[in-house]
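Sample entry (529 residues):
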Amino acid sequence: MTSPPNVQPAPSRLSAALQTIPKNAERLILVGQSPFLETLGKLYAGYNPGCKQNRFDRLAADLPELGDDGVLFLSGIRTDHPEFKNLLNSIRQANRSGSLVIECLNPFYFRHLKYRPYDPDALESGFRTFLRRNDSLISETGWHKDRQLRSGQQGDALARWLKEEGEVFSEAALKILDSPLIAYRLTCQRARRISFQAQVLKPVGGVNDVRILEPLSALSSLPGINAQVSRQESLLPAKVGLERIMILHRPILTFAGSLAGLQKMREAGYLIVTEFDDHPSPWPAIEENRYLTFAGVHAVQTTTPVLADYLKGHNPEVGVFPNQLNKLPDINSRKPAAPVTIFFGALNRQQDWQPIIKDLNQALKSIRKPYRFDVVFDHDFYEALETDQKSFTPQCPYAVYKSRLQSADIALMPLLDTEFNRMKSDLKFVEAAGFGAVPVASPVVYQGCDPEGEFSMMCPAPADFGKAVAHLVSHPEDLKARQHKARAYVKEKRLLSQHLSSRMDWYHSLLDRKDELDRALDERLKALL
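Predicted structure, serialized as tokens:
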């Protein structure tokens, strides 16, 4: 029989490996002869280009010491080898900090077995014995097991193998047979255990990805951290030594519908954080409920200092996490000989682009080099462009949005100077720069990213947008130079890996003061009620 549909496949080898390497590692030492390690090193560099990487075919006496934020990654290890314990001992004695990742062979993987297993119970029992032995060796040699996961699932290979005979295996046995590798992450010091849960909205325009999914994925790569994301409320049972944080993503909390749920979370021992990255004026229910969305939780996290100052009027505990990219985008597929592509992709920006459209259309008439517009989301803007060199993509998933941005050379970002806009984040600017698209932008919000105009073109007046576009299309040397500088800006300053430590420092400070924050929350609720 084939594997039943409810059996969760093991992560791919690359995916599992990335889950075991902290995204903010300062040093990564890859040991082994597998070509897979070269692929892993290149992929990891996209997330953390500042990490110093070393590659060795085998363990050697001159391996550099790991340090607090270093990782030693060993590939193709047999834990049943007589020297495995000595290996763990020698590495532990040479390092007082850092992490050790062992990618070990699973002897019960169906292709590693000498004979077909006709006794599923014996298979499961043997695998449990194998894991217990590994745990014992890990403990005896002074390591702490921080993570263990299956690795390397290979599609339909097991299903074809199962068809050769008529055995019936349990779900647990199928998972064992389908996992070529078992990956362990070991730490010298026991990590503080924190569970993040996030309650999110229906995905719109990538806001879930940038503010919740990608940051929590990066945080969960750190020792001691795990994360879950759901659109439904689900509370974990209390466990000794496990601290729990609930992040409510852009909630609209009401006295009638939310107080009971908040109290339930508090009684369960959660630290409750609201994530909000816009001025709340478009949602009148927030004001109608006396800003319970912010005052009714322990702390608030947001994107900009300006918005943070506003939110502190409702809750003094505000953390500022500017939007960062999870990974430096890959632009190798871009066609260098294509016409210059001008990208515009935004929701609810009609009032912002209307002042610039007349001068933009006038400037387009003067351009003599090939260009094209790629418009996403806003059909009115597409229709207002007085050119045939344009294409349109309606509202789409975030991955599609990024795929359109991937081929862009210039990105238009007009913003009127309003209270709401002044509290917006610079995400679109950072996304464009990461893909190598030169931002042509209003100073509102975006000026702080590039105050000297090294790679962007700031446009204080509406007519400046058309002039900037015409200049960049007509001067390919300047366009290319700015594109390279834009990518360098993101690579050096605007990746999640560079900011994980400051995020965790804030969460640690909240957890350390949880009793104090709970008393302050009580006082705010009394005042509201």
